[in-house]
């Protein structure tokens, strides 16, 4: 049984002027993220040229990013303006569930997108027969459903720990590390299970991505023409940039030992993968893809340069 009915999320330190600066910056990032990813979703939906597996995955990924950033940033903005900076016990664990479930879904989507690129480059003749519309929809559904089925058990275990005070979390989200620190008892089994679980969730899809791109690299290096190699690398480059940014920060935060890291560093790392990567992803994908750029110009009401 827990005694704490609410937690205090300290968020970002500083005077009111600094708080207002953080609020403005994060609000701009949030709105730009909604605009960028929303434009990609609309482009994939409305442009028939983008009704292919690669863009269907990308459209779902952009839709996911909208919800992923929305699981933390609105509450973060309210928290900055709040005097009490409190979040209810239930609200804390609901945020925990959606934030981590959506993050897990993102890991799965990145893995599936890497597999799609592997099929397209390494098995181009078999690609249409393997990556059918039905199989594509099935993979999308598996990513969404499995992402939301992974975290109930760890969250239930952590929520059952006794929290008898203090209730101050030096973070802007409900994260397992600070929650374990606030528990009244030491729970090595639950901590080990969550650490192992996080490692599997992160490294499983990461190794799958690594395997896919190792095979892609081998196939690309065998392409005789320089133009063919450049095109193949360009197709995969944007995806690799997103993977590197997202997984790099995740591993630093949840796989490497972070107990000795200052709270400020943990906040910065969390802010990168929870707010910055959803903002950069649409830019990375659209700037390196002509079809997507053309579709986005239509969506945003701009004239297409025919030259």
TrEMBL record:
Positions of the G-protein coupled receptors family 1 profile domain: 36-285
Domain of life of the organism encoding this protein: Eukaryota
Disulfide bond is among the record's keywords: yes
Gene3D superfamilies, per database record: Rhodopsin 7-helix transmembrane proteins
GO molecular function, one term: G protein-coupled receptor activity
Tagged with keyword Cell membrane: yes
Primary location: membrane
SUPFAM superfamilies: Family A G protein-coupled receptor-like
InterPro entries, per database record: GPCR_Rhodpsn, GPCR_Rhodpsn_7TM, Olfact_rcpt, Olfactory_GPCR1
Membrane topology label: Multi-pass membrane protein
Annotated compartments: Cell membrane
Pfam families assigned: 7tm_4
Alphabetical UniProt keywords: Cell membrane, Disulfide bond, G-protein coupled receptor, Glycoprotein, Membrane, Olfaction, Receptor, Sensory transduction, Transducer, Transmembrane, Transmembrane helix
GO cellular component: plasma membrane
Transmembrane segments: 20-43, 55-73, 93-115, 135-157, 200-221, 233-256, 268-287
Signal peptide limits: none
Function: Putative odorant or sperm cell receptor.
Protein family membership: Belongs to the G-protein coupled receptor 1 family.
Record's protein name: Olfactory receptor
């Amino acid at each position: 049984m827990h005694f704490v009915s609410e937690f205090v999320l300290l968020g970002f330190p500083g005077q009111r002027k600094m708080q207002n600066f953080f609020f403005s910056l994060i609000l701009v990032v949030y709105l730009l993220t909604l605009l960028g990813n929303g434009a990609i979703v609309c482009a994939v939906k409305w442009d028939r040229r983008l009704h292919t597996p690669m863009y269907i995955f990308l459209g779902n990924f952009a839709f996911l990013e909208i919800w992923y950033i929305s699981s933390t940033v609105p509450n973060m903005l309210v928290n900055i303006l709040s005097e009490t900076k409190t979040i209810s016990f239930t609200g804390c664990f609901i945020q925990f569930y959606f934030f981590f479930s959506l993050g897990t879904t993102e890991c799965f989507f990145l893995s599936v997108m890497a597999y799609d690129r592997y099929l397209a480059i390494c098995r181009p003749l078999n690609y249409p027969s393997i990556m059918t519309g039905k199989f594509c929809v099935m993979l999308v559904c598996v990513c969404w459903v499995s992402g939301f089925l992974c975290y109930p058990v760890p969250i239930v275990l952590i929520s059952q720990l006794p929290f008898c005070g203090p209730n101050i979390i030096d973070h802007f989200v409900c994260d397992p590390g600070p929650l374990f620190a606030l528990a009244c008892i030491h729970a090595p089994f639950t901590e080990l299970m969550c650490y192992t679980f996080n490692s599997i969730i992160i490294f499983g899809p990461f190794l799958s991505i690594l395997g896919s791109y190792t095979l892609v690299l081998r196939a690309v290096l065998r392409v005789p023409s320089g133009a063919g190699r450049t095109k193949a690398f360009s197709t995969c480059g944007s995806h690799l940039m997103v993977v590197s940014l997202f997984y790099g920060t995740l591993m630093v935060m949840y796989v490497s030992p972070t107990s000795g890291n200052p709270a400020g560093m943990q906040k910065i790392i969390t802010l990168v993968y929870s707010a910055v990567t959803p903002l950069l992803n649409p830019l990375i994908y659209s700037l390196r893809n002509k079809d997507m750029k053309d579709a986005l110009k239509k969506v945003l009401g701009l004239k297409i340069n025919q030259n």
